[in-house]
Each structure stands twice: as structure tokens, then as C-alpha cells.
């Protein structure tokens, strides 16, 4: 996102997206992060900062964006020192301008300084994802298309990054390989053994083994695969790297018999056209795998002691 980007108000809360995070996995992420960042404490602060010194600092936005990670920032500060006071000035999903104060922290200076980098790293990345998602959502506005993430997330941080997508008004795809069936090109190549004529038969047999609540999605990369896949009774068909003309033809061919997902070659320049083609879902790996952390800083306002 550029400093001059314009973001419409985020609709995450209006559409009822879940903007809560479970405490246990967040704490586990934070504990791992602090074990990595300060395995023996913060020797710089221990050397330079008196034990009794206190500090007040603000989380300051240096560029506009959408806030995500408010409670993660708070929990990071208070995991280091439960006595640290954190006032959240904005909520997850709120839009902000450059210069906005997002949170205020008061406590022992050594504790604030030890927690600073872990807290900032996470809230900067989460807010970047929320901001990028909001840009995509805005460009798809007025169509039926839902913007979703993918499994292209940072290992160990998926729960935070998917939450950030929701803060930006997007939705989540399957969480893991255990949640739904998604047969992609490599699955189909192995399964059919090079005999595409058996595709419908093999998919139908596979679907018969699933429980009725398990979602079954199949990716296709050619127009002639659509009918054989639909004949197997799948729930969603993913049109991968189709041109806009092909997407429109694909949507017409499906004709409501399954949900249509578009994926591949989706960016801020192409998403509006893809959404206008009539697809139901647009999955975008770039929501999480290529964002640059948003420029937020923790600035000390006052010290005492």
C-alpha cells in the first residue's frame, strides 16, 4: 500500500465477520516469539535503564491503514509484565490515517522496551494484511464475489494472518488440509493416470466416500474440464488462471450447479474485472504472502524515575 492510498470504511463488523482471537494459540505464538527474541532477557535495557524507571509510549501510525492485532499488541505487552497498562484507542477492523495514535502503553520502562519489537512485528504484519485485504474488497464492491485468503501464510502465524484478513473485510478459505477436499492439478494428474476420460468416474467415487458435511472442491485449468468435474457433483469448481473471457464462459457453463471460485493472476489491477465476471469467490495468496509490514512505531512520550 502506498502512503496516498484511499481505503473505504471497512465492512468487517457490518457483515458479522468474527473479529475475536482464541487466547491459547495467541499466547503460544507470543511465548515462542519472546523465547526467540529475549532468551536471556534484554541486556541492553538491563544495562542502561534503571530498574525503577517507568515509561509511557504510543503506538503511532506513520501511514494510513486498517488496524489488526490490537489485542495481540496488548497481550504481548502484558505477557512480559502483567503490570503494564495498555489502552487500545482503536479496535480491530478500524480504519486510521497517518499520525493516528492506535494504543497507549504505560509501565516499567524495561518491560515496555523488551516487549516492543515482538508486539510491533506482529501488529505491523497483521495491519498490513488487513489494509491490503480492504483494498481488494473495495475493488470487488458491488459484485457477488467474496475475497478470501489461501494457505500461503507464514508458518506458525496462520491464525493471526487469517484474522487480519477478516479485519480487512475478507473471508477465510479452508484453514488446513484437514478441513475440506480441494483437488488441484497435481492430484488430478496422479488420480487419472493420464486418462482424463475417467475424471468424472473417479471424482464421483471419491465424493461417495465423504461425509455429507465435507466440502468438495476441484481446480480446473482448462475449459474442457468443467463439464466432467460438474458431472461428479462437486460443491465448488475453481477456475485457475482463466482469462476474463474464459471466466465469463466458465460461469455461464456452471450456471449455478456449483460455486465458482477464481484463482491465479489476481492483483489490484485485475481483481475488479475478475469479480465482474460473475464468480462467487476470489482466492488471493497475495493477501498474506507478499505484503510488506505497515509502518507503525512505538514512540516514548514520557519517562519517570
UniProtKB/TrEMBL annotation:
Domain of life: Bacteria
Native organism taxonomy: Bacteria, Bacillati, Actinomycetota, Actinomycetes, Micrococcales
This protein's record includes keyword Glycosyltransferase: yes
MF terms (GO), sorted A to Z: nicotinate-nucleotide diphosphorylase (carboxylating) activity
Pathway connected to this protein: Cofactor biosynthesis; NAD(+) biosynthesis; nicotinate D-ribonucleotide from quinolinate: step 1/1
NCBIfam families linked to this entry: nadC (TIGR00078)
Reactions accelerated catalytically: nicotinate beta-D-ribonucleotide + CO2 + diphosphate = quinolinate + 5-phospho-alpha-D-ribose 1-diphosphate + 2 H(+)
Gene3D superfamilies to which the protein is assigned, alphabetical: Aldolase class I (3.20.20.70), Quinolinate phosphoribosyl transferase, N-terminal domain (3.90.1170.20)
Family under the similarity heading: Belongs to the NadC/ModD family.
Species of origin: Pseudarthrobacter quantipunctorum
Protein name: nicotinate-nucleotide diphosphorylase (carboxylating)
Recorded name of the encoding gene: nadC
Amino acid at each position: 500500500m502506498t502512503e496516498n492510498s484511499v481505503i473505504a470504511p471497512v465492512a468487517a463488523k457490518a457483515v458479522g465477520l468474527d473479529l475475536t482471537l482464541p487466547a491459547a494459540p495467541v499466547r503460544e505464538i507470543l511465548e515462542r516469539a519472546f523465547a526467540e527474541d529475549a532468551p536471556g532477557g534484554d541486556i541492553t535495557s538491563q544495562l542502561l535503564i534503571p530498574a525503577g524507571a517507568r515509561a509511557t509510549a504510543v503506538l503511532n501510525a506513520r501511514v494510513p491503514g486498517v488496524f489488526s492485532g490490537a489485542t495481540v499488541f496488548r497481550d504481548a505487552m502484558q505477557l512480559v509484565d502483567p503490570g503494564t497498562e495498555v489502552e487500545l484507542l482503536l479496535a480491530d477492523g478500524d480504519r486510521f490515517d497517518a499520525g493516528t495514535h492506535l494504543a497507549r502503553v504505560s509501565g516499567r520502562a524495561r518491560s515496555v522496551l523488551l516487549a516492543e519489537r515482538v508486539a510491533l512485528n506482529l501488529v505491523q504484519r497483521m495491519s498490513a494484511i488487513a489494509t491490503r485485504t480492504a483494498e481488494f474488497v473495495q475493488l470487488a464492491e458491488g459484485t457477488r464475489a467474496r475475497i478470501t485468503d489461501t494457505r500461503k501464510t507464514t508458518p506458525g502465524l496462520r491464525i493471526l494472518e487469517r484474522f487480519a484478513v477478516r479485519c480487512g473485510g475478507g473471508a477465510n478459505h479452508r484453514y488446513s488440509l484437514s478441513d475440506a477436499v480441494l483437488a488441484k492439478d497435481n492430484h488430478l494428474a496422479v488420480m487419472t493416470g493420464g486418462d482424463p476420460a475417467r475424471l468424472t468416474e473417479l471424482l464421483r467415487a471419491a465424493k461417495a466416500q465423504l461425509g455429507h458435511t465435507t466440502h468438495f472442491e476441484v481446480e480446473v485449468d482448462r475449459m474442457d474440464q468443467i463439464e466432467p468435474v460438474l458431472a461428479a457433483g462437486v460443491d465448488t469448481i475453481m477456475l485457475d488462471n482463466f482469462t476474463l473471457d474464459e471466466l465469463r464462459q466458465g460461469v455461464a457453463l456452471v450456471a449455478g450447479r456449483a460455486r465458482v471460485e477464481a484463482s491465479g493472476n489476481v492483483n489490484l489491477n485485475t481483481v475488479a474485472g475478475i469479480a465482474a465476471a460473475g464468480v462467487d469467490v476470489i482466492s488471493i495468496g497475495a493477501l498474506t504472502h507478499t505484503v510488506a509490514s505497515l509502518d507503525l512505531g512505538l514512540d516514548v512520550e514520557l519517562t519517570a524515575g
